[in-house]
Amino acid sequence: MATPVRRALAAAQRSAVHLEMRDSYMLDDPEFIAWQQGKRLDPEDRDSWWHGWHDAVSEAAERGVVIRRARIVSEPVHAYIHYEYDLTFGNIAAGEQVRWLPRRNTGDLALPGLDFWVFDNQVVHFHHFTGDGQLAEHGEEVLTDSALAKHCASAFEAVWDRAIPHGQYTV
């Protein structure tokens, strides 16, 4: 069963942008726990890490959809952000562009208080998380509101413009 984000990505024609602003997500994720215990993915062993999300991104990118992800992070980074950083090679291999923005560089930016996706500058997909980083009950909200989409897209672009490309950012 496809998630709402995967369905929106499958329908996207031009663009998909994602802004992540939390320092940790789902700390009980078995993959994160395994990473904390020393498990690392081998970029050369694609079969060991490529999964459905990578397929969805790759298919969209092949259709010409530009997929960008920006992460606002506190420094020094939380272990979960280091984990995401280590996995980002997969996002890039699938066709995403990824940048990182230290939180200290966001003081003058007007940002929505939620992580979000914007698809084709028309559809906004908010994620609502609990304080401990779990996706809240009814934690996905999809809105088709051109003013809201413009606001979120503008916030994303402000972050993107000053964020550091993945290949130049170190944790």
What would you say this structure looks like, in words?
The protein has helices at 4-11, 30-36, 52-62, 79-94, 146-162; strands at residues 15-20, 66-73, 96-102, 115-119, 123-129, 135-144, 164-165. It is α/β, with parallel strands linked by helices and 171 residues long. It has one domain: 2-Layer Sandwich (Endonuclease, Chain A). Helix 3 packs across helix 4. The mean pLDDT is 97.
Brief summary of the model shown:
The chain has 171 residues and is α/β, with parallel strands linked by helices. It is built from 5 helices and 7 strands.
Features:
Endonuclease, Chain A; 171 residues; 26% strand; alpha/beta; 7-stranded mixed β-sheet
Low-confidence segments, given as residue ranges, are none
Strand content: 25-35%
Helix content: 25-40%
Total number of beta strands: 7
Q: What's the mean pLDDT score? A: 97
Number of separate domains: 1
- For the termini, the CA-CA separation is 34 Å
Spatially, the strands of the biggest sheet line up as 6-5-4-1-2-3-7
Number of helices, counting only DSSP H or I runs of 4 residues or more: 5
Classified in CATH, the superfamily is Endonuclease Chain A
Largest sheet: 7 strands, mixed
Shape: globular
Please compute the radius of gyration using only Cα atoms.
Answer: 16 Å
CATH class: Alpha Beta
Structural class: alpha/beta
